[in-house]
């Protein structure tokens, strides 16, 4: 008995776990489908139409009969515990109690099927079906259903047993002859003991007994009291030794209705990954005399349908008849079965289950027997480790990642790509391709494609021309319909070779610097900048650069005094101007290469406004009328004299808080203003007296943004986060704006005091100061409403 219980309870528990599952690969069918099989009617009911267990009633001319547990066993109905395709299966034997039988060739069924909707309302579905016999009856047919054993035998079956069964047969004949009651009786043989009972008594014990014009029918549950479990070639078999007899006057009619069914579960070989099931080729008491046993044909199939040999071999099924046993072997995941998934302890598992169908046609003397056994064969839960394959083709600049393989009850619902999470639909909308790839064995996989240059993909230049793209993927998979989530992580990296940053060449001209670079295949990866600003046609036009860009190369000409220059070693004769072109990663903005060119330019006139508050001015006095001696010029503070002079130009270097510099301000700018003035004595003809008056005045100004300026009045310190720009204006003329020039490399902190001490020095005195200067990137708009800060 323990084996019997193990088999039935195990199958029921496994199937109940799977009962809600829907195989989405199954073709769409109607809510209720009925079809005739070899020996039964199959009714399939879509489990989605009901929220409660179905109620089923059989109908015949005498009334309506509910089909439930014990009654179903007695009368030949099976509500299958195996439901893998989303349908609840009801099987009704052609000899079930309420089937209209026409000469054992035509069978008519009528049922009511009651379902319950989401609101609790019950609906009645009427099913009527007539089946004609597709396959002639054998002399004896034994069917091992899930919940009962059924035997049908021709009334005229030949009965001259020999061998081991002869004693049982003789005992039955003796009991029949001794019986004083006519009519059909049953005799059970159990452990050598005989028990005889009427058909009515048998019905009371749950046996199904019936007869038609041509055949006798007997049906028994597996756990009936008169059955026993034996070992046949080390395989557990339930046997019930039963004979029906009929006595009328001096005539006795006897029919052997014994049954035998295996109850051994399937097994699994984790090395070969195959499910296997063993069945005894010969089962007592189905064979009277083994010496007369002839096996005519052994067949196998799936879900009640036999397959031809070519078909099951093509699926990888194996059948091996080894003397007294038949071995059936099915590869994991083979067609005809179902793979199902389950998450246990945060581990993704799946198992495989197949509803095999075994049929053996054999002869025992002159009696042909057809023996059928269906069996749900399954594997245990097997930990599975989804795998990823990097199918990226570097030349396509797209990550292509394969994730597989999954049975039909697993779906991809979301992906996390680096730092962002997308549902599958959101991923499509964002431009990422996610494709489901079906396989012939019923599994499927997913392929996701993400462009290298997508915003979510980090990029890193490793040097030596190597460019690295990386993608971390966190897949969210869902096991349906239980809604069990499972996560799988994968990382892929792509290395692109020969991805060197652009290599500029640069040459000096008399008034500019020219940069040139040839275009590269991966030019889109890099961005050329001037400082922090990308080099675009708009920037070039705004700053006065000359930019030429064609299919072969890019040329940038930068005239002197344009924004971006750094100025060094400024004298009245010349100065050095340096212009730098940067190459940075267009995505990360990391600087990868710098091309700087330093050129010597002639000095004419300029003004430089440093971030440390130092003004450097080269001014021409050639426009002064009458002429002005450069050596006679000073700033507003007469002690502040030129650092250098020649015949008509002067060089002043002074701090914004020295030399009488005035400070004005509005809401946008702080303006530092000083004047270059000349003083000389003369005697007017009308007034012969000595006076001193200015005959030349040149105004110089530096403008700084208010928000970037930090000016401390206590110690006269000055610091600007952004550079200023300046203008030079001769009294009575329009101002000249000087390039919005500023300093980039800070002068050390005592610059202002140094200048204050040495402004009275002779022009020929050499002051060794070589600050670097560069152009200011801001545009100045004068606001006429100024407020003095003195």
Helix percentage range? under 10%
Oligomer: single chain
Strand content: over 45%
Biggest sheet, in brief? Answer: 10 strands, mixed
Q: Which runs of at least 5 residues are low in confidence (pLDDT < 50)?
A: 1-28, 687-694, 738-790
What is the general shape? rod-shaped
Number of strands: 62
What is the mean pLDDT? 83
Radius of gyration based on Cα positions: 51 Å
Domain ZP: 608-790
Organism: Anguilla anguilla (European freshwater eel)
Pfam families: Ig-like (PF26562), ZP-N (PF23344)
Keywords: Signal
Describe this structure in words.
There is one protein chain. With 790 residues, the chain is mainly beta. Helices cover 9% and strands 51% of the residues. Strands 10, 11, 14, 15, 22, 23, 26, 27, 28 and 29 form a ten-stranded mixed β-sheet that branches. Strands 41, 42, 45, 46, 47, 60 and 61 form a seven-stranded antiparallel β-sheet that branches. The longest helix has 17 residues. It starts with a helix and ends with a strand. Keywords: Signal. This is ZP domain-containing protein. InterPro entries: Ig-like_ZP (IPR058876), ZP-N (IPR055356), ZP_dom (IPR001507).
